[in-house]
Amino acid sequence: MSDWLPTLITPTPEAGYDLAVKLARVAVKLTQPDAAVRDKLRPEYAGDADALIAVSQVVATHFATVAAANGYWRGQS
Amino acid sequence: MSDWLPTLITPTPEAGYDLAVKLARVAVKLTQPDAAVRDKLRPEYAGDADALIAVSQVVATHFATVAAANGYWRGQS
Amino acid sequence: MSDWLPTLITPTPEAGYDLAVKLARVAVKLTQPDAAVRDKLRPEYAGDADALIAVSQVVATHFATVAAANGYWRGQS
Amino acid sequence: MSDWLPTLITPTPEAGYDLAVKLARVAVKLTQPDAAVRDKLRPEYAGDADALIAVSQVVATHFATVAAANGYWRGQS
Amino acid sequence: MSDWLPTLITPTPEAGYDLAVKLARVAVKLTQPDAAVRDKLRPEYAGDADALIAVSQVVATHFATVAAANGYWRGQS
Amino acid sequence: MSDWLPTLITPTPEAGYDLAVKLARVAVKLTQPDAAVRDKLRPEYAGDADALIAVSQVVATHFATVAAANGYWRGQS
């Protein structure tokens, strides 16, 4: 898990959103480093509405950070 | 899922709120890409008070970001 | 659902709080547009402590946004 | 429920914390206006660890807002 | 419960973190003032992973406030 | 638990993320100081999707703080 986060700066809001998704996933990897266990859990939560909403909440929190880091990409609007 | 988020800037607070709803939904799509599964889950959580409140929480978090990006639409008040 | 959010600016903190409550409710309406279903859910969550606390959390998140938009109504203190 | 929130400005951090507690409770009152129902729910959640932690989370969110409104009471440190 | 929060300013990040833990606990005390009940609940949630994570979430929210109040202790880095 | 948090400043975003993970864990340690109990809980929540997502949420909240403290590491982009 090295060099996975060189910067919070992204060229577009969409790329910033993708980074937020990545930031949400890495904490799961660090807490459950066994890929086999994670692979077993994935269909479980991907088919559970509550879990999907909870994932979306984590992404929202990270997106706030990434958006602030990028000055909300205001120069592009 | 490309070009769905060209900017965080919206003409009105209401359009900003709609964008927050969209931002909340995209994370669900990225985590559960199968539309058929999502369609099956929708009536389930749309009829569950706890899930609806949780969705509202995600929207609130994204709305905070969108509102900040737009300087709270202060010029229009 | 048009013209329900012309501005985040409110004359008083109390009006700002009321707006936060409204912002919390609209996401529920957009996710569950059927008023009959919402009416059926309401007594259920209004009588459930966990749901009431969760609603209060959503309101708190929106109130943070509305308060920031209004410069915390500092001119009135 | 009128005139319950004239200002977010408080003389001390402690008074700000008390205001955060109040802000957390008002959303519950507005969602469940029947005092008799609320009185029945209170012992239930006051004896439940998860509910107490959830209440504390709402207070934390409001305290962030009140603290920002007061410039973190820096002049008094 | 008086004079427990004279200031949000702390000499170090660590002291700021301890203050965040305290801020998280006080809301529980105010909601459940009976120390005997709280003592009974403690082993219950201290042995429950979900409750421990939820406590950590409250601390994180308060730490954000305390860190901002202290200008992130930047002068000491 | 002394001297574990000398500063919020980190050389890179990645190191900031690692610090966020640490900040999330310390609150758990302070609430459940018994390492044997924590060791028993770990496999339990590391194999539970909901718990992993909740941990990720706490990390996201702390990462927001650490990122702000570091000016979002903008000088390095």
What is shown here, in short?
With 77 residues, chain A is mainly α. Chain A has helices spanning 13-31, 35-46, 49-69. The interface between B and C is medium-sized, with 29 and 34 residues.
Can you lay out the helices and strands and say which pair or pack?
The structure is a homohexamer of 77-residue chains.
Chain A: H1 13-31, H2 35-46, H3 49-69
Our estimate of the beta-strand percent of chain A is: under 5%
Oligomer: homohexamer
Q: Please provide the count of β strands of chain A.
A: 0
**Terminal-residue CA separation of chain A:** 34 Å
Spell out the helices and strands of chain A N to C. Answer: HHH
Mean pLDDT across every amino acid position of chain A: 95
Query: What is the helix fraction of residues of chain A, given as a range?
Result: 55-70%
Structural class of chain A: mainly alpha
Number of helices of chain A: 3
Radius of gyration of chain A: 14 Å
What is the approximate shape of chain A? globular
Low-confidence stretches of chain A: none
